[in-house]
Amino acid sequence: LPESFENGSVTSVTIEDTENKTQITTPVTMNTYTDGFKWQLNIGDITTFADDEAVSKITGELFSLDLSALAAYNADEQKLKEMGFENAVNVTVKYTYTEKTDDEAEEKQSEGTFALKLVKAEEENCYYVHIDGDSGVYKCASSDVKSITEASMETLETKKIININIDTVDSMTVEYGGNSYEVTFERTDEETTAKIDGKRVGKSYIEGFIQDLNLLECEGKAENETQGESELKVTFLRNKNDGFKKVTLVFTSYDSSFM
Asked: pTM score, two decimals?
């Protein structure tokens, strides 16, 4: 792999096989309803958020890829075809890194790209690796590239429902049990004051409520839209310029166990 990648920072990974194209990029560029997600996931026509830990596994495998075992030297196109690279998993990585300027006195931020191909080897629990621009073919353990070769919507999509930063909220409305509660914030350079229906409350109380929402994770996707009235409805009015100004969470019963 390029020497500059060793201390680089990954900005994009594209994984493509004969059936699917998966791309994870940072920063998030889509118009978003929430805060705090670092990675954007694109698979087919679907764009969503990627799970940080899942992406870290992929980038970790790239940074630690061991190419010390040579499977073929000076492999030409015919040799690559014989080894199965026509049906390879194609991986393209973009990254940034810091390098010295010509006078060595300053540093500058640069961008790099490399591509590699992965294909199952004849040897059990092993993959062949070919890097574009390199005439060699290497071997690595299947477990060393497991997160890359098994990348999918199921393995990469975040399970988090929302990730709201209280500092991006101007006000919020909570509807529960037939009642509606208006939460507002007054901010100065020194402090942030929270009020419920005009009565001052501790900011930590509201932070705790938002944190409970942020900790929620989905167990799956409903096949049909749920029916009936909402049991809890939370509406956020946000002060962000790069996302939805109004975000509403609605909780209704799905069955006896799920909402």
From this structure: 0.81
